[in-house]
Amino acid sequence: MQFYRQLGQIRALTFDLDDTLYDNHPVIVRAEQAMFDWLAQILPPAMVISRDNWQRLKQQLVAVDSSLRHDVSAWRYEALKINFMQLGWRLKDAELAAQQGLDLVLVERNTVDVPAETHRVLALLSAKLPLVGITNGNVDPKKIGLAPYFSEIYQAGRDGLAKPDADLFDCAIRYLKVPAQQILHVGDHLHTDVFGAKQQGLQACWYNDQQRVLTTEKVTCLPDIEISALAELLPLIK
């Protein structure tokens, strides 16, 4: 545990979900693979979009409609729909297939191995303070077993612009009815989590379980505290 500032009173906690409460990287890899496997099943080999062209298409879409960056489900749906239309499909058929593809990805997206330690720590914390989830992703907390620990969970797209924009933090502050400076936000990302939280007046905890070195990172502002294990939060809560 590393302190960069003296912590103030903590009356509530907000948490990032992906890569903070569980390792999200293998989940995304598996979900992407499932999508490409599905495309290979329904399309002739020559018509299956390559991974490079898939990323290129997504960037082209977000360049036209920047709001897609704040809703990863809508972004994937639109990319699939446009891909099918570029193959000559009718709009209605492209929309139907895009939804099928998104639904398939979401099944994998919600197959998450949440560590037992995460459950243990969240159970102890939620017995003492209100917890609110704040995520830029599209995981369903109910399906992965995390919902019971949280009083509320806010998701980019559905509830506002993605972190580091203010929307989700402001939602949490309004819900908790606690001064922002008495809320500690916990997340793995120095920009979306730490910078985003500090911009809205929250205290910020950088969750660094990858042994990253702060002095080598691109840092907009320092966190108040750095931890490498969620259990390090427990002594902070009276």
Notes on the protein architecture:
The chain is of the alpha/beta class. The protein folds into two domains: 2-22 and 113-236, Rossmann fold, CATH 3.40.50.1000; 26-110, Four Helix Bundle (Hemerythrin (Met), subunit A) (Up-down Bundle). Helix content is 41%, strand content 12%. The protein contains seven helices and seven strands; from the N terminus they run E-E-H-H-H-H-H-E-E-H-E-H-E-E. A seven-stranded mixed β-sheet has the order 1-7-6-5-2-3-4, with helices on one face. It is elongated and about 60 Å long. The mean pLDDT is 96. Keywords: Hydrolase, Magnesium.
Please provide a brief summary of the model.
This protein is an alpha/beta fold.
